[in-house]
Design brief:
16% strand, four-stranded mixed beta sheet, five-stranded parallel beta sheet, alpha/beta, elongated
Length: 795
């Protein structure tokens, strides 16, 4: 074994020591966000930038504190801004289908609503009482008396003419009849029949003349009646005007500087003439139509629908819309069923998030925004036009469910989209307008550099979280454990994970174990128990795979030697958890020129990056071994008992060593497991998930019994990523398990085989019997066989 490649204990894990740190009992933090200076600077710039188009896209994975940072900045900044105006919708008396928007100063929406309700109460107290006053009744009676006088005078003229020819005139209501007179008495029907025929004929002739005369004198009766109705209507309007003028005087004075309100009050005043005449006149008020019904009717006509009423002391609004469907964002119009028919009016208009955020900031989840139909295009239209229009999103499909077209409201809002990098790049690529509308990118890092200052802030944040959540106080050792776990999540000894939320959750879980042990403080043991319990909850799949390896269902050797077989290391991701497990890689080599066949790719299980890693093997063989003859080889590589998709190139080092083993017939120690990526020059490159991979192989070796020969080989570039569990470190300390860090293929081959790989001299020759010498010899042999076969085919 090459001891220089074996990693010492101190490099297997970062051990945090906070003995020199001082922590206050109740820390005060200016911000709950650690690190992210780039994102914070971009967010501050975007929030303060007033120019159009400077909306913000906050890019990063969930759990990085994106919303916390946004709300922290906005809550402090928005309070310094003036509150935007309030908005209401009122009835359009000329066209009820198009309600009118009314703009009011902040915090005056509800006050205006109460003033209109008071106006309605005053109207109900004034009418119909105003029409029952003696002055009104006197004027109305005079108009009606004048009409009756003119009518009676005309009838008197007809009566006099009738009497001159012995005919009596009778009035029954508006009906006029005639009867002959004998002996100064009018005759009844029976007496009239007894008259001689000549007298009856003379009577009928005179009646015809009288009726003709009656028609002449009453020819202008319809005009007199119309004149009387007009005079009464004018009297009603004058009475209404005199009665309501005092009611509107105070309102006009109060709202004289608000143009929309002054206009609306004027429209109400004009419309009241018809409303009062139709519903509040004494003779038209039915007993069944009580005060409540009349008030409800007037409220439906005149009370404004307050869409949004901002408070002055709140500053600019900050709205987070968690469910951005079209109606929730742009508003909607509700309906009620009236005898089976859906009806609506201006009072059924409901505000959306854009209305509530108007004049301030609107926070949206980008993924949800793109999930719901019509929302993204609608949002762009609203931002580009600078107005909010409540409309049906389905009208373009020929489905029209809206009976109102409310007046548009001016829009001035800063939109902050929160989403992953994939969504940002997706929008950038497919929507040409995206960059014009979202000019500010707040890019969140996945990690935070571990410095003395950042550790101090991290510790203070953990202490504050424990205090705020009601958990027991954290000991220094507990904070050290949390920092070490955060470094493990980031897979780097010099970085924290930016997912601070995970550490905060562990405090809550550790607090439970602290209570169960009846301890006064949360210490490292409680943190470790919480982490172990979390792993156990999510560990069913890992335990099942380990059990199948132990009972021989999955074939993995951890002792002995084998040609063309090697233990690779993989990471499996299931749901929100991941774990490492070894996988057997096998290789066969035979004469021919087919090249290296990736069985995973041929079976359509190998993804692009894995296939690239296999292709690099050919480049390495050609560069290292085939400089003096054509490379001709037929080989097959497979990851055995793998039935799912495989991606990543971290198996390429193991695959190459396995290929060289099969090529040179050199056995490989099965007590080793290998992970690493390579380039065409044989340099070993870093991979991900190194801790999980080592621990996955360790668990198998531990279950079978550690013998001091078991070891994992990793890239030297991954040494800074090591944050191994204590059980692995303890086994290494006892000499039962080893970890080697390699930089080249040759170093790996020497570890796996116990033989010299060989170093080429100045003319490119390797020492005889070295692995590289045997590889060249075997490839030369295969190349010669291939050339001979081609010559025979040519003959």
């Amino acid at each position: 074994m090459l001891s220089p490649l074996k990693l010492p204990l101190e490099s297997l894990k970062l051990n945090i020591n906070l003995a020199d740190f001082e922590f206050p009992e109740v820390p005060r933090l200016q911000s709950a966000i650690l690190g992210q200076p780039r994102a914070q600077s971009a967010l501050e710039f975007g929030i303060a930038m007033p120019n159009p188009g400077y909306n913000i896209f906050v890019m990063g994975d969930s759990g990085l504190g994106r919303l916390s940072m946004i709300t922290t900045h906005l809550d402090s900044f928005a309070h310094t801004l003036p509150a935007p105006p309030s908005y209401a919708y009122v009835d359009n008396f000329d066209n009820p289908r198009e309600p009118v928007a009314v703009e009011l100063p902040a915090e005056q929406g509800q006050e205006f609503n109460k003033d209109i309700e008071k106006l309605i109460d005053d109207l109900l107290a004034t009418f119909p009482a105003a029409f029952e006053s003696p002055a009104y009744q006197q004027k109305k009676n005079a108009i009606e008396r004048d009409f009756s006088q003119r009518y009676n005078n005309m009838i008197d003229l007809v009566d006099k003419k009738a009497q001159s020819i012995n005919i009596a005139l009778f009035r029954e209501g508006e009906a006029i009849t005639f009867s002959p007179i004998k002996s100064n008495k009018p005759l009844n029907e029976e007496q009239f029949i007894r008259l001689p025929q000549p007298e009856r004929e003379a009577f009928h002739k005179h009646v015809g003349e009288l009726e003709e005369y009656l028609s002449e004198v009453l020819l202008e009766l319809p005009q007199w009646r119309r004149a009387m109705v007009e005079k009464i209507k004018q009297l009603d309007n004058d009475t209404i005007g005199l009665a309501i003028d005092p009611l509107f005087t105070e309102l006009n004075d109060k709202y004289q500087n608000i143009d929309d309100v002054v206009t609306y009050l004027s429209e109400i005043k004009k419309n009241l003439n018809n409303t009062i005449a139709d519903h509040l006149m004494p003779e038209r008020t039915l007993e069944a139509k009580n005060h409540t019904l009349k008030r409800l009717m007037l409220a439906e006509l005149y009370v404004p629908n307050i869409l949004v009423d901002n408070k002055e002391e709140s500053g600019a609004p900050v709205i987070y819309e968690s469910h951005p469907i079209y109606q929730n964002l742009f508003g909607r119009i509700e309906y009620i069923s009236d005898q089976g028919t859906l009806v609506t009016n201006y009072r059924k208009i409901c505000a959306g998030s854009l209305h509530r955020a108007n004049g301030g900031y609107l926070i949206l989840d980008a993924e949800k925004l793109l999930t719901y139909p019509f929302v993204w295009e609608g949002l762009k239209r609203a931002l580009q036009a600078g107005r909010i229009e409540i409309e049906s999103p389905y009208s373009e499909l020929g489905i029209n469910t809206i009976t109102l077209k409310p007046e548009v409201i001016p829009l001035n809002v800063k939109v902050i989209l929160v989403g992953s990098a994939d969504i940002h790049y997706f929008l950038e690529e497919l929507d040409d307008e995206f960059n014009e509308m979202f000019k500010v990118l707040a890019d969140f890092e996945g990690y935070i550099p571990r410095t003395h200052e950042s550790m101090q802030k991290f510790a203070m944040l953990m202490i504050k979280q424990a205090a705020d959540s009601g958990a027991k106080p954290l000991t220094r050792s507990a904070i050290e454990g949390l920092i070490e776990h955060s470094c493990r999540l980031s897979e780097n000894q010099q970085h924290f994970s930016a997912r601070i939320k995970d550490s905060l959750e562990i405090i809550g879980e550790a607090n439970l174990f602290c209570k169960l042990s009846d301890s006064s403080h949360i210490n490292r043991l409680h943190v470790e128990k919480a982490l172990a319990a979390r792993e156990q909850r999510n560990g069913r799949m890992a335990e099942n795979i380990l059990e199948e390896m132990l009972n021989g269902t999955i074939l993995i050797d951890t002792e002995g030697e084998a040609i063309g077989k090697i233990n690779g290391l993989t990471v499996l991701e299931v749901g929100g958890s991941s774990f490492g497990a070894p996988a057997r890689i096998t290789t066969t080599v035979y004469p021919g020129s087919r090249g290296i066949v990736d069985i995973e790719r041929e079976a359509e299980l190998g993804q692009a990056i894995h296939s690239k890693g296999v292709m690099i093997l050919t480049g390495y063989l050609g560069h290292s071994y085939a400089q003096q003859f054509p490379l001709a080889i037929s080989a097959s590589i497979a990851i055995e008992q793998s039935y799912g998709y495989i991606d990543g190139d971290s198996a390429s080092l193991a695959e190459l060593c396995c290929l060289i083993s099969a090529l040179t017939r050199t056995p490989i120690e099965q007590a080793f497991a290998v992970t690493g990526s390579i380039n065409q020059y044989g340099e070993v490159q870093a991979i991900g998930g190194v801790n999980e991979k080592i621990e996955g192989f360790f668990r198998l070796c531990q279950a079978r019994g550690l013998n001091g020969q078991h070891a994992a080989i990793i890239p030297a570039a991954n040494k800074r990523n090591l944050m191994l569990k204590q059980e692995v470190i303890d086994a290494v300390a006892q000499g039962l398990f080893s970890i080697y860090a390699v930089s080249s293929v040759d170093e790996t081959l020497e570890l796996l085989t116990g033989q010299q790989a060989g170093i080429a001299d100045i003319i490119g020759n390797y020492p005889e019997n070295s692995i590289n010498f045997r590889a060249i010899s075997r490839l030369k042999e295969i190349s010669d066989m291939t050339v001979d076969d081609e010559k025979e085919e040519g003959l």
